[in-house]
Amino acid sequence: MYRTGVEVPAGVPTEQAAVAGDSLAGAVITAPELTADQSAGLLASAREAFTDGVQVVAVIGAALFAVTGSLVIAKLKHIPPFGAAQPPADDTPAESAEDTPEAESIKPAPID
Q: Quick one: pLDDT at residue 43?
């Protein structure tokens, strides 16, 4: 992104233009070796290209963050938050031991 956005002023030697067009640091290192007009133009162009690149990356990062957050919410919304009361495991009442056929045979006889 930076390399396509930076404009090296005319008259800058090829070697210095390559260093300046490679990175923001290269432009800052090259600038003192140029004339005042070339230096100002190069630094302004490098600063703008760098800022444009950072903004593009920030927008992409924000979009990915939003998509990831939406997916997490969609996939985990059925899980209750920590500390929340747990719902009962089953809505049907459990069968008590007294209701089973085996319990009939072991019931004590009534006392008269």
A: 94
Q: Is the pTM of this model over 0.90?
A: no
The answer as to whether 67 is a domain residue is: yes
Residue 83 confidence class, pLDDT cut points 50, 70, 90: confident
Q: Which domain holds residue 27?
A: 2-79
How would you write the chain as a 3-class SS string? CHHHHCCCCCCCCHHHHHHHHHCHHHHHHHHHHCCHHHHHHHHHHHHHHHHHHHHHHHHHHHHHHHHHHHHHHHHHCCCCCCCCCCCCCCCCCCCCHHHCHHHHHCCCCCCC
The rounded distance, in Å, linking the Cα atoms of 46 and 8 is 8
Distance in angstroms (rounded) separating the CA atoms of residues 102 and 81:
42
Q: How many domains does the chain have?
A: 1
